[in-house]
């Protein structure tokens, strides 16, 4: 009888231990399969960083995407039509770590993409284009790009698709495939300031009064 | 997860551990942009030497403004490729570019050895004249994956499909022009000018209009240089007095005669000893052809052809008019281009390009793998 009880107990203990081992193996597999050690450490670092930049205000969890339209007329630009400063109609609240994408970029009366340098060097090279690409800088965005050329470094570059011989008309410059600009920490934006230039660091506008550009950004909250 | 998937996951995890970055991580930026800007090689330029191809226009080696730190296994995608003055894709060898960057571990497979382990970029330049082209026909744009590393420079090369020719419109050596024969009637206006292509001039250009026979004809010769937008630009010539017209056009009104060859010694000569790159137009016209209204810098070459030129006479007889292009001020090194003129017709137009800027701009996105 005693033996029978002992055997039964032993069986129960064995079962318990086996079940526990299965449980630990399952846990081990869940952790091990989904993340190796380095990834786990990185996740911890990421979580602590996220905590540091937490928004102290209310968060809009229903709206994960926001659109920002920057519409600038050349006559309002300063520094020989290269810099702009616009005030948003209402503050743009970014309440969590987000990624910014350039959705569209439209110009009106901008120089075409074969416009030559005003002071070519060497002087014989009169047809070296200075408007192959536009450089857009926005002070409120922490743009981090790498490049071999100092002019392109930490700027948004937009290939110029304007082929208008007379430098008039509207062109949508949409040759970029990815359109990623940068990430942004929670913040409130009231003004957008920055610059838009060509390779010669001069204005892209052919008409410095009626010229215009419209940049549309989409700000997507990171999950 | 079934057994095979689990094993695969284990392998990935083990590999990820092996290539772990021992430095700090940037957890905020999941995507990085890397922009490569290259221009043609020149001793002095609007571009600094760190933005230039080597003199072969194929290879490059440039330093980044600051080291690019890739802190985790990432995938590289090409965002766009922009070229200026790339070759016309009309022949099979020009139909794509082969691009290689030494710092990227590109593992593409192919039956063609030149393409193997390189980036393939379909050439979308369909222009015979130098122009800006965006090559954006790739759909997925995936280039390769990259392990954590620090990149301080980019080096590599870009060629046509043969793996050895640069991707830019080639210059034609003067010796290769000698067999061109143009029949008048195809080239009576600027927009139908006979296209001589990009000609290799390095120090000296001389144009000499001759009949190719002993009979001289009193004709005119004009030259214009235009900007990339089609408007006129100044020629600052520095030839001998009377043959060095400057301003928005050059002209010479003198006898066209003599014979082809080094011994030709006629007066209808235009000389450029200060080589200026650009698109040139040249017209040989009958006697008393004039640029009636002084053109301005806003005029296009079509304005000159259709409005400003006045022709008093047509060609008086059928005959041959030759344009001799000389590129050496000492011993003439020349090509003679034949033009058959027909009685009553007015003017023969040529166009050619001297030098061309070369530009390649591309952007890569480096996206951290989840």
List keywords for this structure.
heterodimer; A: 223 residues; Jelly Rolls; five-stranded antiparallel beta sheet; elongated; B: 370 residues; mainly beta; 2 domains; 2 helices; 6% helix
Tell me about this structure.
The complex is a heterodimer of chains A (223) and B (370). Chain A has 2 domains: 2-52; 65-221, Sandwich (Jelly Rolls), CATH 2.60.120. Chain A is built from 2 helices and 10 strands. Chain A has helices at residues 2-34, 37-52, and strands at 65-73, 83-94, 98-108, 133-138, 145-147, 156-159, 170-172, 180-184, 187-197, 212-221. In chain A, strands 1, 3, 7, 8 and 10 form a 5-stranded antiparallel sheet that branches. Chain A starts with a helix and ends with a strand. The model of chain A has no long low-confidence stretch (mean pLDDT 83). With 370 residues, chain B is mainly beta. Chain B folds into 2 domains: 17-169 and 357-368, Jelly Rolls, CATH 2.60.120; 174-354, no CATH class. Classes of the chains: A alpha+beta (223), B mainly beta (370). The interface between A and B is large, with 62 and 73 residues. Strand 5 of chain A pairs parallel with strand 1 (31-39) of chain B, so a sheet runs across the interface.
- Average pLDDT confidence of chain A is 83
The run of helices and strands of chain B is HEEEEEEEEEEEEEEEEEHEEEEE
Number of domains of chain A: 2
| Average pLDDT level of chain B | 76
Kindly provide the radius of gyration of chain B, computed on alpha-carbon positions and rounded to a whole number of angstroms.
27 Å
Summarize the main sheet of chain B: 6 strands, mixed
Assign the structural class of chain B, choosing from mainly alpha, mainly beta, alpha/beta, alpha+beta, or little secondary structure.
mainly beta
In which range does the helix fraction of chain B lie? under 10%
**Uncertain ranges of chain A:** none
Largest interface by Cβ-Cβ < 8 Å: A-B, 62 and 73 residues
Total E-strand runs of chain B: 22
> What is the CATH topology of the largest domain in chain A?
Jelly Rolls
Helical segment count of chain A: 2
